[in-house]
Amino acid sequence: MSTKKIKKRIGLFTLNVFFIIICFVGLVPILYAFTLSVSGDGGALTSKMSILPTSFTLKNYAAVFREKPFLLWFKNSMVLSIGTMIIAMGFAIIAAYAFSRFQFRGKRKVLLLLLLLNAFPQILSMFAIFRLFKTLNLINSQMGLILIYAGSMCIFSIWNMKGYFDTIPIEIEEASKIDGASNGQLLTKIILPLALPAIIVTSVMVLIFVWNEYLFATTFLLNDKSYSLAGGLYQLQADDYTRSWPMFTAAAIMVSTPILVIFFAIQKYMVSGLTAGGVKG
């Protein structure tokens, strides 16, 4: 074996070892949280930090369901996430296709305006939104929160989907029109199937944002029966007298699990959804 190949293999081995170490360091907090979740009540008070539990128990997981309305919080988060995803993606797909394919006056300015709105700090709009929702009687309303989420995530979805639509060859659409396809058939039978990876990835990113969103959820949902999971987690550790870190970490792991399952389920779409397409010869 030549010296050049040996050096290349040593370099690749060193790089892989480095990446493995980085991954392990990133997993330490997660492993510690899991260890704490399966430990007794005193696990968080010990001076030693260990990623292996000294005693194993699932009572903290059972306590989350028994003592707190966790399933209700889960249902609320599902309603918020799916409702936002449907509304945001429904508008974003049509708007992104229009921005990608049609030429009209002010197109670039509108896109830049949307980008500016997306960069605007959400916390600065809190007071105005609160006054507006109070007037419209949308405080403590899931529909009001869905409107906020859909408005903010629609902008992100438009930009993300437009970039993918730009990579779909216009020749495919021209050939379909020659074959007699209408605009509706072109969008539903040609464009959407081709853009399916990008639609799935963008939808999941919208869902993850809503699932983890904390600021608006704790501001506009004001009682424990309307809390999302983010607000519910806050309530688990808000009281100094009843705070239980093992139960909190157990709930946090259960909140994270559905997102991990979804992420692993769409891995094959992540690559194709974020890469450009081309015309086959």
Automatic annotation (TrEMBL):
Residues 74-266 form the ABC transmembrane type-1 domain. It is a multi-pass membrane protein. The chain crosses the membrane at residues 12-34, 78-99, 111-133, 139-159, 190-211, 245-266. GO terms for cellular component: plasma membrane. CDD domains: TM_PBP2. It is found in: Cell membrane. Keywords: Cell membrane, Membrane, Sugar transport, Transmembrane, Transmembrane helix, Transport. One of its GO terms (molecular function) is ABC-type maltose transporter activity. GO terms for biological process: maltodextrin transmembrane transport. Pfam families: BPD_transp_1. Belongs to the binding-protein-dependent transport system permease family. MalFG subfamily. This is Arabinogalactan oligomer / maltooligosaccharide transport system permease protein.
